[in-house]
């Protein structure tokens, strides 16, 4: 019978059998799948596992710390953090086109991750074979890639942790039989922090595709502040379970006139995109309580410099996608 305890026990045994005395690498994205996969493998083979976290500077407030501190504290995992913020900003300089941004972020991510892999192999002691790569592939991913659902490729999705073909690694995929809610239960059982286990979907390219316009450090910081306020208020209002996710988007190429104190302002709009959904293939805009929206709007315009307007996206998917880019 299905219990999280049985799943963990079974997977730990299978991982030990597969990996033996060799070494494994796991990329962490900050998301629940890679975190639970890593925690399972850590439980099975301990210090034979090295995790890699590429800090691309496109995460939301607090997320990198959650991986670096809280996840490590909860699991005891050996973690290599690569600070690649400058590199991603350089690569994204002058780029506004959404698909181009996605391609650049995906490409840079793979390059940085491959370098980290090479470093780990180089650092391994003689005779240690770094032979395995851990992936947080879920059951729906398995079905989707094997079954060929024939859906059009509307955006070039990339998953942090999704890697190119020319690897000399064998894959370890301990979540292949699980659905998302089961992964969360396993993560909870393994003692992972709630912020990771209950995290709503967040795109691999991160805030890079939530800035309409060029991605710069200042804009990222601004968006991080606005996003943190929205998340804080949604959590305080107890709405996290009601919504699928709520992208917060900065219209960096748009300005509008406003008035604050006794002065005219000319600032940027922030878009709130709360949606409800079952599987992200279709979605509806969430009817959030007006008082919660009002609180978020007041706080963002008061606390975030250069933002003088907050607007609500009331488009379903289709025709709108969930993300703006
Ligand atoms: P869209 O915008 O296509 O998004 O309606 C559907 C869901 O996918 C997430 N998303 C991504 N997730 N890598 C990811 O891992 C990506 O490149 C990516 N782009 C969008 C989005 O947040 C939503 O949950």
Automatic annotation (TrEMBL):
Record pathway: Purine metabolism; GMP biosynthesis; GMP from XMP (L-Gln route): step 1/1
Root EC class: ligase
Binding site for ATP: 29-35
Transmembrane segments: none
Keywords carried by this UniProt record: ATP-binding, Glutamine amidotransferase, GMP biosynthesis, Ligase, Nucleotide-binding, Purine biosynthesis
Keyword ATP-binding: yes
Ranges in a coiled coil: none
Catalytic activity: XMP + L-glutamine + ATP + H2O = GMP + L-glutamate + AMP + diphosphate + 2 H(+)
Domain of life: Bacteria
Keyword flag Nucleotide-binding: yes
Gene Ontology MF term list: GMP synthase (glutamine-hydrolyzing) activity
EC number of this enzyme: 6.3.5.2
Boundaries of every GMPS ATP-PPase domain copy: 2-199
Task of the protein: Catalyzes the synthesis of GMP from XMP.
Subunit structure: Homodimer.
Protein's recorded name: GMP synthase [glutamine-hydrolyzing]
Species of provenance: Streptomyces kaempferi
């Amino acid at each position: 019978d299905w219990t999280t305890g049985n799943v963990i026990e079974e997977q730990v045994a299978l991982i030990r059998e597969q990996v033996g005395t060799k070494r494994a690498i796991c990329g962490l994205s900050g998301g629940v799948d890679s975190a639970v996969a890593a925690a399972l493998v850590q439980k099975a083979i301990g210090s034979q596992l090295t995790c890699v976290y590429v800090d691309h500077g496109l995460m939301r407030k607090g997320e990198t710390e959650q991986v670096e501190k809280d996840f490590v504290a909860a699991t005891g995992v050996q973690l290599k953090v690569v600070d690649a913020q400058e590199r991603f900003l350089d690569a994204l300089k002058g780029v506004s086109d959404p698909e181009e941004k996605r391609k650049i972020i995906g490409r840079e991510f793979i390059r940085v991750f491959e370098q980290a892999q090479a470093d780990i192999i180089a650092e391994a002691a003689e005779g240690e074979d770094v032979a395995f790569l851990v992936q947080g592939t879920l059951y729906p991913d398995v079905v989707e890639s094997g079954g060929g659902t024939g859906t059009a490729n509307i955006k070039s999705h990339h998953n942090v942790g999704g890697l190119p073909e020319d690897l000399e690694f064998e894959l370890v995929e301990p979540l292949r039989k699980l659905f998302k809610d089961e992964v969360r239960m396993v993560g909870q059982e393994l003692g992972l922090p709630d912020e990771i286990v209950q995290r709503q979907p967040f795109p691999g390219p991160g805030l890079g595709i939530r800035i309409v316009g060029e991605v710069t450090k200042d804009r990222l910081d601004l968006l991080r502040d606005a996003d943190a306020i929205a998340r804080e208020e949604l959590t305080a209002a107890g709405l996290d379970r009601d919504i699928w996710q709520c992208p917060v988007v900065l219209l960096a190429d748009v300005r509008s006139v406003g008035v604050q104190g006794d002065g005219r302002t000319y600032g940027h709009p922030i878009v709130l995109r709360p949606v409800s959904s079952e599987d992200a293939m279709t979605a509806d805009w969430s009817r959030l309580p007006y008082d919660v929206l009002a609180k978020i709007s007041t706080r963002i315009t008061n606390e975030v410099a250069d933002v003088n307007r907050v607007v609500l996206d009331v488009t379903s998917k289709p025709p709108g996608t969930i993300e703006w880019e």
